[in-house]
Amino acid sequence: MANLPGVAKGIAQMLAHEKVAVRQAALRAIAAQPGKVNAQTWLASLEAQLAKGASPLLLDALAHVKEKRFDASLNAIAADTTKPSSLRLKALLALSSSGEDLSDAAFKLLTDLFVDPASPGLRMDAAARLANTKLTPAQWDAYLALLPNAGPLEQNELLVALAVPQNYKRISKDLGRKIAVALSKSAMLGTFRQDLVRKAFGFLPREVYEVLEPSFDAALAANDAKRERLGPLAQMAVKQGDPAAGRAVYESGKGACIACHKIGAKGNEIGPNLTKIGGIRAERELVESILFPSYNIARDYDLNSFQLTDGTSVLGLIQARSAEGVTIKEASGQSRLLTNETIASSTQLTTSLMPAGLDGMLSEKELIDLVAYLRSLK
Ligand code: HEC
Predict the structure, then answer these.
(1) What percent of the chain has pLDDT over 70?
(2) Among 96, 118, 148, which residue terminates a domain?
(3) Residue range(s) defining the domain that contains residue 332
(4) Ligand 1 centre distance from Cα of residue 261 (Å)
(5) Residue whose CA lies nearest to ligand 1 atom number 6
């Protein structure tokens, strides 16, 4: 819409308007555009607004403009530790290219957020950004040092990025080997999809994958052993589980459940609302949902993968379909409209959006208590 000349002129006039509300409406219109907009006529007004100070809305709009002339100011905001992380991340996401000019301060923000237990949504955004950004060798080393301890979804972002052809030329054999070493140290290894791992390393010489292979095979075997534990763990939850302690685990944010599930008024609704889950699921099914989310995918929560015409791909739950395209909800909780023109193909995955491996963040007692708590919700 904003790419049509008449509309673009209208937005330009609104941006220069004396009333704040009108200027904000223009920013909102820009921020609501799918993809990058052609903003030649607005650049001066946007620049003037940025000089006065960055609001989240202005940064959202700039993320659809992605002009080199804003990079210096945006990098400065990203580097300003007195500003909230969410604002600094928005500034980073608005940089013109895939972070060709990623400053050390901006990089530090990304790596801090990447492992920040308090902000799951920002963590995912940071993970996607790190995985898709051109990093210096020193930045790669710092990122890969954190990777094995990051959350399962955040680690998965790198595999997803490696599987994109445009990224192949960024990854040398040596770097590929370093990535393989980092992943082989990950406790989440057994949660990665085999086909994705193969694809991620498929463009490198086989010897690179061989660095990872022994650990990956061992992790897959450990999964089989874990399957045997389903029954015993369910029994323990029935006999020894402490619902009050489990509630404390849930509310502490441990295991990240609260980032995606709502119980009563607390939490997010990326996954199903669990307020009455104990009425429809018994201990064994609850344990299974946590240990192996992809065994049984709850109704209407099928995960879809979209390959876009720019070579990137995104994962999400389908929220709505319209004449314009498909609205999806990403794991970060953000909704996003993918227009028909930008979708090259799509596939329904057999994996859950709920990451496997979350039980690795809980002790056995915490897991059993958590299950007892969920079972008590009726
Ligand atoms: C990244 C988001 C995310 C996180 C984090 C997450 N879940 Fe889920 N969860 C989902 C989604 C999406 C589904 C629905 C798809 C499925 O069934 O696998 C789901 C399904 C479930 C179900 C099955 C619900 C039903 O109706 O059968 C249970 C139980 C559950 N999650 C519990 C948890 C617990 C406990 C945690 C924390 C250890 C957790 N989830 C963490 C997204 C998440």
Answers:
(1) 94
(2) 96
(3) 303-348
(4) 7
(5) 257
* Residue 104 and residue 210 in one domain: yes
Report the number of distinct structural domains present in the chain: 4
Nearest CA to ligand 1 atom 16: 297
Q: How would residue 1 be classed by pLDDT, with cut points 50, 70 and 90?
A: very low
Distance 25 CA to ligand 1 centre (A): 37
Using the mean position of ligand 1's atoms as its centre, give its distance from the Cα of residue 355 in Å.
8
Q: How many CA atoms lie within 13 A of 138 on its CB side?
A: 5
Among residues 41, 74, 96, the one where a domain terminates is 96
Please check whether residues 234 and 103 belong to one and the same domain. yes
The CA 374 to ligand 1 mean position distance, Å, reads: 11
Q: Say whether both 22 and 64 belong to one domain.
A: yes
Q: Do 17 and 90 sit in the same domain of this protein?
A: yes
pLDDT at 35: 66
Pocket of ligand 1 (CB under 6 A): 255-257, 259-261, 270-272, 277, 281, 286, 289-290, 293, 297-298, 301, 331, 352-355, 358, 370, 374
Summarised one tens digit per residue, pLDDT across range 162-204 is 888 777 888 899 999 999 999 999 988 888 888 889 999 999 9
Report how far residue 246's alpha carbon sits from residue 57's, in angstroms, rounded to the nearest whole number: 39
